[in-house]
Amino acid sequence: MIKFQNLTKIYNTQAGKIVALSNVNLEIGKGELVSVVGKSGAGKSTLVKIFTREEKPSKGGIFFNDINICELKGKKLQEMRRKIGVVHQDYKLLCDKNVEENLCYIMQVVGVGDKAIAKDVKKVLEIVGIENRVCHFPHELSGGEKQRLAIARALIHRPEIIIADEPTGNLDVYNSYEVISLFKKINEMGTTILLLTHDKEAVDYLQKRVITLDQGKIIGDDKKGRFIL
Ligand SMILES: Nc1ncnc2c1ncn2[C@@H]1O[C@H](COP(=O)(O)OP(=O)(O)OP(=O)(O)O)[C@@H](O)[C@H]1O
Ligand SMILES: [Mg+2]
After folding, report:
1. Using one digit for the tens of pLDDT, what is the confidence trace for 38-55?
2. Of the candidates 54, 63, 62, the residue with the CA atom closest to the CA atom of residue 92
3. Which atom of ligand 1 is the closest one to the Cα of 216?
4. Residue to probe by mutation, ligand 1, list 35, 46, 56, 195, most atoms within 8 Å of CB
5. CA of 6 to the centre of ligand 1 (A)
6. Is residue 9 part of a domain?
């Protein structure tokens, strides 16, 4: 389903070139839950940014069902974006909109009707377990609730894959467990998940495939991995 092919990213800075990713080759099958672990600076967020098109690779590409997402433009790029849900460490919620509006907004942008939106909002809020917080604003939510809202937002357009960059980075142990359990549940419902994380406990709890990145290179790929750095 997803294929990273010779993916290389070199940042040109005033201090010189920084190789963030170096010839990364990786395949992720439909329905997998894969964790990518690595020390700070290993290249995890760079991988996410290329996926979300915030950055272009210096070489290679990311193929989604054989289409190189790094080369898409216009309508085709918009269509691809709907297949990918993204969750960030710092939630990136709209602070002047309440829970419901944070979710409706995404659907309205792509032209979904009001009735269908109301149904889907209810459904995703039930999945993430914050259906009793519909009218709350982000500043009225706990960290765990904010992240669950961000996950609901990633889910609402029924993506084929969810990519989460340090989704438990701002959460305490209890909320991290809740969020990771939620990803597990969403994966069991059929969505492919790519989790980039520092969170050893989360990775060990999942007992799923673990890719280890070090200085932009893959140095490990274990089917039922534990977090070893
Ligand atoms: N915009 C940029 N310009 C120049 N160098 C960058 C840029 N973004 C990241 N880097 C460098 O690329 C390397 C990989 O960074 P990246 O953010 O992908 O790491 P990471 O694995 O996500 O780290 P962390 O766990 O701290 O979030 C680092 O050496 C970083 O300093
Ligand atoms: Mg990062």
Report:
1. 999 999 999 999 999 999
2. 54
3. 14
4. 46
5. 18
6. no
Domain count for the chain: 1
How is the beta sheet containing 192-197 ordered, strand by strand? 84-87, 161-165, 192-197, 33-37, 209-214, 217-222
Tokens 């979710």, residue located:
103
pLDDT band at residue 198 under the 50/70/90 scheme: confident
Q: Which ligand sits nearest to residue 36's alpha carbon?
A: 1
pTM over 0.90: yes
For 175, the enclosing helix (H) or strand (E) is: helix 173-188
Task: Give a yes or no: residue 155 inside a domain.
Answer: yes
At 72 the pLDDT is 96
Q: Ligand 2 mean position to 172 CA, how many Å?
A: 18
**109 pLDDT exceeds 90?**
no
Residue 20 counted as domain residue: no
Q: Strand 2-13 vs strand 59-64: parallel, antiparallel, or unpaired?
A: antiparallel
CATH number of the domain within which 186 lies: 3.40.50.300
45 C-alpha to ligand 2 centroid (Å): 4
Q: What is the mean pLDDT of the chain?
A: 95
Ligand nearest to the CA of 58: 1
Closest CA to 199 of 188, 186, 183: 183
168 alpha carbon – ligand 2 mean position (Å): 12
Tens of pLDDT, residue by residue over 173-183, are 999 999 999 99
pLDDT of residue 135: 97
Domain that holds residue 144: 32-56+82-222
Of all protein residues, the one whose alpha carbon is nearest to atom 28 of ligand 1 is 41
Kindly state if the Cβ of 13 falls inside 6 Å of ligand 1.
yes
Query: Could you tell me if residue 198 is inside a domain?
Result: yes
